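Q: Give me the 3D complex with FE2/S2 (inorganic) cluster.
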Amino acid sequence: MLVTVRVQRFNPETDSKPYYQEYTVEVEPTDRVLDALNYIKWYHDGTLTFRRSCAHGVCGSDAMRINGRNRLACKVLIKDLGPKITVEPLLGFRIIRDLVVDMEPFFAQYRAVMPYLINDEPPPVRERLQSPEERELYDDTTKCILCACCTSACPIFWTTEWLGPAAIVNAHRFLFDSRDRATEERLAILNQKFGVWRCRTIFNCTEACPRGIQVTNAIEQVKRRILFEQS
Amino acid sequence: MTTETAREVRQVSSRGLGAYRGYRPPPGMISWALHRVTGLGVLLFLLLHIVDIFLVNYGPETFNELLFLYRHPVFRIGEIVLVAGLYYHAANGVRIILIDFWPQAYRYERQLFYGVIAVFLLAFVPTAILMIRAILV
Ligand code: SF4
Ligand code: SF4
Ligand code: FES
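A: Here is the predicted complex, encoded as structure tokens.
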């Protein structure tokens, strides 16, 4: 199957602004967009730059806009897109080159919510017990691979500096963990002006998440927790 | 580093309102954009309304002259647009409240949006017919 891949390109040392370049490649319908990009890089144009690592949807490094929506290139099949494919970098970040963007602001948001278990109580003799029901409360948000599909799909994030959905998902993962003891500190962080209240329930994040996490639902749970527990 | 040539490295990012053009909007994004636009439209009308009521202070003549403006066809068509904005904003506002307070609402986010469109049409079409009739007579 012959497909035309239109890629947004940008080299900060030679180009003044991004432009599009088209490549025509022969691929199988069951190939993924990542395979097409690899093919271009290996046999057509070695200067094409993009990130990828695991190629199996677990490392989160090849998030990009595919036909205008945030997706992992390694999880989208060519046959679901048709013969014309547009590939662009994630929105809202500085472009380092071609499809590679500067994710540092994204990881700064992530670090801001203290994404680790906090519990200073002396450890029990055996493990800290948790019932299946307690575990279920945050099961969905443990699946995040920090790909930034959600945050860079959020229209609020494009215009405003705020925590963004991914950081809230990862805060949710500890807020709803019965073993964690930093609920107050975390809720205080999320209750700030640029915390959860910036979310306008647009659901772009949920639509984009390659892990199928109910991102907006997690954000709404945090909002309700602040509303009912902190006031 | 001093060995580095002073090559200008340009910074390009896709932040700001321009980013909206770069994303193929899912229904939720459309519902939100409409909510913003109608919200601003209604606010604009409200400001206008405050100004015209304020003009009562300058005597009944001034006020009546202004009312003539409101009877102008362009303004009356504008009124229909205003009603459309109000209906949408109200219906979608209820949807947002549901999403915020009904824990299961996220499952039906899209259906709720289509519901908003249905409620909007049910309310707006009859109103619009009545208003257009009033303009024609
Ligand atoms: S639901 Fe909230 S976080 Fe998700 S895209 Fe919308 S505004 Fe952004
Ligand atoms: S919540 Fe989903 S889209 Fe967002 S960073 Fe995690 S895996 Fe990616
Ligand atoms: S390459 Fe690892 S998620 Fe796609």
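A quick observation: Chain A is about 30% helix and 15% strand.
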